[in-house]
């Protein structure tokens, strides 16, 4: 099985993001790490590939930088990576990104495309569905469990109340939630091999895009304004008259924790 | 010589740190140290699967054939997390002594299983006088038939209670010799002893007419002290890496606490007594790290240099860690003295590491000897 995994390099979430004041785009440093949510996709991809003697190719659209994030995914065991990196892509919205990735994935060929549910830095959460539309294959989303059998892929789709069982015939797009599997830690061998693995770097033109079709020019969506997160309010203080546990339960229920 | 870590080495450090933080956090360390085995077999097999055990073992014997610097990176992380695991004993001591003195058969018999995490090894050196190189060793190796019969008692055997193979220093008619003894050999009894540092186990091992074949002898007859001189240099460097990791963690805990603990309406870190203490800790940690990494490079890169820098690293890092771990308790004030806080675990590790394989004074004396002073 030929598996494509979308892997995004993002600025380390531990350090505050810098936004460029004019367009409100995230300023991307040279050092970007693998989006944590993509580690689950990589792991599922590796497990499915191991079970079917398949291969895992990473797809990413971002300023390549020093490729630290992609190397992390290669160190986990992915076979190769295709990076679309081009200044012309700056300012692309989710749909343009999906178009670019779809073309790169199509060019390479695939049986299954795996992505996280949404990126940690952008959080649009629409790209996988757009990919499925563009690639004209079904989308299985929010998987918290994945089973693969021949040409069929079956998932437990996370819902607020439980899960739905959904299945589709390959080729398909799959999005996985955090917790679907436990991502492996790169082995020493994997880390040392990562440098030798092929990383193909493409430009928008390599994929047949005109400069007007991509980047800010090709995007319908833009960020109009950005407001800082309000400072956290002081919590609510409940005097315990012996019944305070009810209040706690209420809050937890509201938060859907219990 | 390149002083910066390569991107691969950085990734190794990140992966090791992430694994240990997720799988063996301090709560787990405390749980493991209460068990009779004193280590966790799942963690042990996972660290082996990640390739940590075989990093510095030659490729011909199932390892990856990398340098002591890679091994040092992992040792630093293990020291930072106080992970209770027979890594130093197996990977540095047992694998080290077999690699230094073993013949081809012995290497082939032991190194692959050490690399794969299938067996635990250690060395048994110390006797009743408490020295790491008793000369001559009281444990006797008497020729009998084709082999030897070993008798006597060893102390402070790291992870001796769980080791599958114990390399025992004994006196044979040829002089001091090393023998590979299976942990379950008839006549061998071992008992875990109570240690101040509960995160690293020690055992006493008694040999009561333990028979071993002639092929169990490591190295040329009577050459044990030369072998061990080299092994202890490596062991000293390995401990130095662990000490750097532990000291770094102590520094981080202290700085964090100094920022968040308020007294008289301001963070305690704004008071000079605390601020200067933290600054001194940083200076110690940085100097210790430089010493450890240079020595780590010398293990694989320059054996003559290692003779000089191993004593420097061990003595410097021992003093630095002990100082920093002690100051960490001071910075934390009352909470730092409690059982629940981790400061005491680092303090105890710092104290036992200081004495492990010889205290700082002993290593300085060794350095003076080697420099011809």
Describe how the helices and strands are arranged.
The complex is a heterodimer of chains A (258) and B (373).
Chain A: E1 2-6, E2 9-10, E3 33-34, H1 36-52, E4 55-61, H2 68-76, E5 80-84, H3 94-108, E6 112-116, H4 127-135, E7 139-149, E8 152-158, E9 163-169, E10 172-176, H5 188-194, E11 199-202, H6 215-218, H7 244-254
Helix pairs in contact in A: 2-5, 3-4
Chain B: H1 7-23, H2 26-33, H3 41-49, H4 68-81, H5 87-101, H6 104-115, E1 121-124, E2 140-144, E3 147-158, E4 165-172, E5 175-182, E6 188-192, E7 202-212, E8 217-218, H7 224-260, E9 262-263, E10 266-267, H8 272-301, H9 303-332, H10 343-355, H11 360-371
Parallel strand pairs in B: 1-4
Antiparallel strand pairs in B: 2-3, 3-7, 4-5, 5-8, 6-7, 9-10
Short structural summary:
Chain A is α/β, with parallel strands linked by helices and 258 residues long. Chain A has seven helices and eleven strands.
Describe the structure.
The complex is a heterodimer of chains A (258) and B (373). Helix content of chain A is 28%, strand content 23%. The radius of gyration of chain A is 20 Å and the shape is globular. Chain A has one domain: 3-Layer(aba) Sandwich (Rossmann fold). In chain B, a hairpin with a 2-residue loop joins strand 4 and strand 5. Chain B folds into three domains: 113 residues, Acyl-CoA dehydrogenase/oxidase, N-terminal domain (Butyryl-Coa Dehydrogenase, subunit A, domain 1), CATH 1.10.540.10; 100 residues, Butyryl-CoA Dehydrogenase, subunit A, domain 2 (Beta Barrel), CATH 2.40.110; 147 residues, Butyryl-CoA Dehydrogenase, subunit A, domain 3, CATH 1.20.140. In chain B, 53% of the residues lie in helices and 16% in strands. By secondary structure, chain B is of the alpha+beta class. Chain B is globular, with a radius of gyration of 21 Å. Chains A and B meet through helix 2 and helix 5 of A and helix 1 of B.
């Amino acid at each position: 099985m030929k598996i494509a995994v979308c892997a995004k390099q993002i600025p380390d979430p531990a350090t505050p993001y810098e936004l460029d004041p004019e367009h409100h785009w995230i300023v991307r440093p040279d050092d970007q790490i693998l989006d944590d949510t993509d580690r689950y996709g990589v792991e599922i991809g590796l497990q499915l590939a191991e079970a079917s003697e398949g291969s895992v190719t990473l797809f990413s659209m971002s300023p390549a930088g020093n490729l630290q994030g992609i190397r992390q995914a290669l160190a986990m065991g992915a076979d190769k990576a295709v990076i679309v990196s081009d200044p012309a892509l700056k300012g692309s919205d989710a749909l343009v990104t999906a178009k670019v990735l779809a073309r790169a994935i199509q060019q390479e060929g695939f049986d299954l495309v795996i992505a996280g549910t949404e990126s940690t830095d952008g959080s649009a959460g629409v790209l996988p569905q757009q990919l499925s539309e563009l690639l004209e294959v079904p989308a299985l989303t929010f998987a918290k469990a994945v089973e693969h059998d021949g040409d069929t892929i079956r998932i437990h789709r996370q819902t607020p109340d439980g899960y739905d069982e959904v299945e589709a015939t390959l080729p398909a797009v799959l999005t996985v939630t955090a917790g679907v599997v436990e991502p492996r830690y790169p082995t020493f061998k994997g880390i040392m091999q990562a440098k030798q693995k092929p990383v193909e770097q493409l430009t928008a033109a390599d994929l047949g895009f005109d400069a007007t079709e991509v980047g800010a020019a090709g995007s319908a969506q833009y960020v109009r304004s950005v407001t800082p997160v309000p400072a956290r309010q002081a919590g609510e203080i409940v005097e315990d008259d012996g019944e305070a546990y009810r209040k706690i339960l209420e809050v937890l229920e509201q938060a859907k924790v219990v | 010589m390149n002083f910066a870590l390569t991107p691969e080495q950085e990734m190794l450090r990140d992966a090791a740190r992430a694994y240990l933080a997720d799988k063996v956090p301090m709560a787990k360390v405390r749980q493991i140290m209460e068990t009779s085995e004193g280590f966790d077999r799942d963690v042990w097999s996972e660290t082996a699967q990640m390739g940590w055990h075989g990093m510095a073992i030659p490729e011909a014997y199932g390892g990856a054939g990398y340098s002591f610097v890679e091994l040092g990176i992992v040792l630093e992380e293990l020291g930072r997390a106080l992970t209770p695991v027979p890594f130093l004993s197996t990977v540095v001591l047992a694998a080290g002594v077999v690699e230094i003195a073993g013949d081809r058969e012995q290497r082939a018999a032991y190194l692959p299983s050490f690399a794969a995490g299938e067996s635990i090894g250690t060395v048994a050196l110390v006797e009743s006088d408490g020295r790491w190189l008793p000369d001559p060793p009281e444990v006797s190796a008497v020729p009998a038939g084709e082999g030897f019969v070993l008798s006597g008692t060893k102390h402070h055997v790291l992870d001796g209670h769980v080791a599958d193979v114990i390399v025992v220093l004994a006196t044979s008619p040829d002089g001091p010799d090393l023998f590979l003894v299976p942990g379950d050999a008839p006549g061998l009894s071992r008992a875990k002893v109570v240690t101040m540092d509960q995160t690293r186990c020690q055992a006493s091992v008694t040999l009561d007419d333990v028979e071993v074949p002639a092929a169990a002898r490591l190295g040329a007859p009577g050459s044990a002290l030369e072998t061990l001189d080299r092994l202890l240099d490596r062991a000293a460097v390995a401990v130095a890496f662990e000490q750097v990791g532990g000291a770094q963690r102590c520094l981080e805990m202290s700085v964090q606490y100094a920022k968040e603990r308020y007294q008289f309406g301001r963070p305690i870190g704004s008071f000079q007594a605390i601020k200067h203490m933290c600054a001194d800790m940083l200076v110690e940690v940085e100097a210790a790290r430089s010493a450890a990494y240079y020595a780590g490079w010398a293990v694989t890169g320059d054996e003559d240099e290692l003779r000089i820098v191993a004593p420097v690293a061990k003595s410097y890092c021992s003093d630095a860690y002990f100082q920093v771990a002690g100051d960490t308790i001071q910075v934390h004030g009352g909470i730092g003295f409690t059982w629940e806080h981790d400061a005491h675990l680092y303090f105890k590790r710092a104290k036992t590491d200081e004495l492990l394989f010889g205290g700082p004074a002993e290593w300085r004396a060794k350095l003076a000897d080697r420099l011809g002073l």
